[in-house]
């Protein structure tokens, strides 16, 4: 494992002190020989009736980002806060754990592209298009599971993907519906990622990735990071899911999409139902040994444990630099159902002859 960065696609932000009843702490990260990890700054889907109803998702996401970055700084002897793929490699070479940020759901952006831009400036490097709820951008897998329509990306979702590509923000397709996955693959100008998913052909849960999408990754260049949650590894008999089941999913991605398109995204501290034999981050050496025993080569192992996701990240950076060099401007789209508040005051007219100016009807 020293040959490659072990990049975990997704772990919830957690305390790092030794002895907690979690899946992750500093001692166990080192025991599991982790070289890099994306930390999820996650806020639950809001309990609102309309996507534009006021909620605290943006505020709470910023607080999560703040906590995570302070955690990285406090443990800077062992952790390196990284916002570039080259930083992750340098951190690994210095035997520190590269620590990156991902946001798990565009509901956290408050239905505004400006929030995506600001999250990028704050260090977030991937955003999951949905969590377990639809939003102004896309349909969630949970909606289809509950019997709802798979409407895929919205028009505003297409604008978000274009803007994320422009920024170099990786588009994460875990949690989204199958048609959302397909819609994104048709239009994304950069490789996508699935931060924590499994294979629909092996476990028929809409949360998982169907084979046609896996095959589409060959052209897109993206990567599926295989998770270890029991019900997504075995939809018929979840309790039987174990480490070998997880290896089955790794090999299915590799066989269908290619070894360049598979990674690891455990969902540690985002679940309590992990596959038997994968209790926490210390299980990684045993997992990699199990993959090797199935016949994976050294080069395939290096891709699995980090080189594939680093390539996806680097390609997003390269493409973003090219878009900037070409003079591409920020996407200015506004969600069609956006409701604006206004100040009922007769402000000066900025645009001469503006017939669309809203009058201050109730100003006294």
From TrEMBL:
Which catalysed reactions does the entry list for this protein? an L-aminoacyl-L-amino acid + H2O = 2 an L-alpha-amino acid
Q: Which CDD domains match?
A: rDP_like
- The enzyme's main class, written as a single word, is hydrolase
Q: Which GO terms describe its biological process?
A: proteolysis
User: Pfam families per the record?
Assistant: Peptidase_M19
State which Enzyme Commission number(s) the record gives. Answer: 3.4.13.19
Presence of keyword Cell wall biogenesis/degradation = no
Family assignment from sequence similarity:
Belongs to the metallo-dependent hydrolases superfamily. Peptidase M19 family.
What name does the UniProt record give this protein?
Dipeptidase
Source organism? Lachnellula arida
Q: What is the lineage of its organism?
A: Eukaryota, Fungi, Dikarya, Ascomycota, Pezizomycotina
């Amino acid at each position: 494992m020293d040959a490659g960065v072990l990049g975990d696609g997704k772990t919830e932000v957690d305390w790092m002190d030794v002895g907690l009843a979690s899946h992750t702490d500093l001692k166990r990260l080192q025991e599991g020989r982790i070289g890099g990890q994306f930390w999820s700054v996650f806020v639950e889907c809001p309990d609102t009736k309309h996507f534009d109803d006021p909620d605290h998702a943006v505020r709470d996401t910023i607080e999560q980002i703040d906590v995570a970055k302070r955690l990285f700084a406090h443990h800077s002897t062992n952790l390196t806060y990284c916002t570039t793929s080259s930083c992750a490699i340098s951190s690994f070479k210095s035997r520190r754990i590269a620590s990156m940020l991902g946001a798990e759901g565009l509901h956290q952006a408050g239905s505004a592209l400006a929030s995506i831009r600001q999250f990028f400036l704050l260090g977030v490097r991937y955003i999951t298009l949905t969590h377990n709820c639809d939003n102004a951008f896309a349909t969630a897998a949970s909606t289809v599971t509950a019997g709802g329509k798979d409407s895929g990306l919205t028009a505003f979702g297409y604008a978000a993907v274009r803007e994320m590509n422009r920024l170099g923000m990786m588009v994460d397709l875990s949690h989204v519906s199958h048609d959302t996955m397909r819609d994104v693959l048709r239009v994304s100008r950069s490789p996508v990622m699935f931060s924590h998913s499994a294979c629909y052909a092996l476990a028929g849960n809409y949360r998982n990735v169907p084979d046609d999408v896996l095959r589409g990754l060959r052209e897109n260049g993206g990567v599926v990071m295989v998770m270890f949650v029991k019900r997504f590894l075995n939809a018929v008999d979840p309790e039987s899911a174990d480490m070998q089941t997880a290896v089955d999913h790794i090999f299915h991605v590799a066989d269908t999409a290619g070894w360049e398109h598979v990674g690891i995204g455990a969902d540690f501290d985002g679940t309590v139902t992990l596959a038997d034999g994968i209790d926490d981050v210390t299980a990684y050496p045993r997992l990699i040994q199990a993959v090797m025993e199935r016949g994976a080569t050294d080069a395939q192992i290096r891709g699995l444990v980090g080189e594939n996701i680093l390539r996806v990240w680097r390609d997003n950076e390269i493409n973003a630099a090219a878009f900037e060099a070409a003079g591409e401007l920020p996407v200015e789209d506004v969600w069609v159902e956006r409701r604006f508040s206004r100040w009922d005051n007769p402000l000066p007219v900025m645009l001469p002859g503006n017939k669309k100016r809203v009058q201050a009807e109730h100003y006294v």
